Amino acid sequence: MSKMAKIWVIIGVVAGLLLFGTAGVIFWKIQQDANERQKALEQNITEMKQLQDGIVRSQAQYGTKEDLEKIAKSLDLNLEAIKKDLDSLHAEVKGINVIIASTPGYNGSGLPSTGTIPRKDPPIEPTECLPDGTCPNLDKYGYMTNAQRMALFEPFTSALNIPFGETVFKAWQKDPWDVKVFPRNYNVTTVIGQDEDGKHYTYNKFTIETEGKTYEVPISKANFVEKFPDPSFHINPKVHLTVGGGIITNPVPSPEFTPSLQLFVFSYGKTKTTVDTQWSLLGIGVGFETQQVLPALIVSPAKYNLGNAIPVIENLHIGPSVSVDIKGQFSVLGELSVAL
Asked: Which of 25, 44, 79, 91 has the most CB atoms at less than 10 Å from its CB?
């Protein structure tokens, strides 16, 4: 090997070390920024907000896995059953949403009737007696001597009747009604799960608290509609292991095969995950020309994820690239790569 070739080899090695060193610094900086953002998010709380038409934005904050488990335990929520079902969907718990709607209850005494219903067989006036000389028992059922009390229940199933309140009727009063409505808390708990494709699942529990007891109420219908994510551009650094074949253009066109490592800076897809990435954009890396036996600098404008066209393939990318080796020889390559 000539002295000039040795110099170019040294330059190539140094360039490769600088490239990977720079990539390492970038990854370290991204990780540091992510850690700082994570700490800021953990301390950040978005307060509950009342919107129009009775819509409420839930208070939002980040928590650890242990925080979610503590919340589930305090709600008597079987989180393990939810996790087991999510495992079958290749998903995991992402959050818990708790909604409480309270009624303060009501006590009213000496209330007038809200309406009357005429009796079809009106009774004989108190001053009148029957033709046989007997007078009817005007208080046959004891309504004039005993207040009539009725407990009120809200039926959900044949076995579940939740106490709602009670009413008392005093027939001897002008305003005969007493009413009591028990205070109640309506609780809706929703656990949110997410799978590998970013799809969400919701698990709901509805309870009513009243008179010191908690009742689990069966849910008749639960429907969650999620907007399908639209593809977009993301800053999404990923290293690709790449193999390419093509033509070295000078001094004489000849075939070349070049494995390489490349760092792609951007992606286009529904999310940043590899399976959702449609395009990996702006790749740069170092490779080794197996025919010329020389290191080379590789630049790839874009790689298409074949998983978008072939569902059984999730991480195989194809696209063109251009390389230049330490002798200044250019190659045009077609490449296949996998994201690491």
From this structure: 91
Strand order across the 200-210 sheet? 91-103, 184-195, 200-210, 213-217
What is the DSSP code (8-state) at residue 53? G
At 103, the amino acid letter reads T
Give the ranges where the chain is alpha helix by DSSP (H).
Answer: 3-43, 65-74, 79-88
Q: Residue 211 contacts by C-beta under 8 Å, 6 or more apart in sequence? A: 163, 182
Which amino acid is it at 71? I
Is beta strand 177-181 parallel, antiparallel or unpaired with respect to 45-46?
unpaired
Number of H helices, E strands in the chain: 3, 18
Question: Position 72: which residue type?
Answer: A
User: Using a CB cutoff of 8 Å and minimum separation of 24, what contacts does 250-253 make?
Assistant: 250/329, 250/330, 251/329
Among the listed residues 242, 243, 316, the one whose alpha carbon sits nearest the alpha carbon of residue 274 = 316
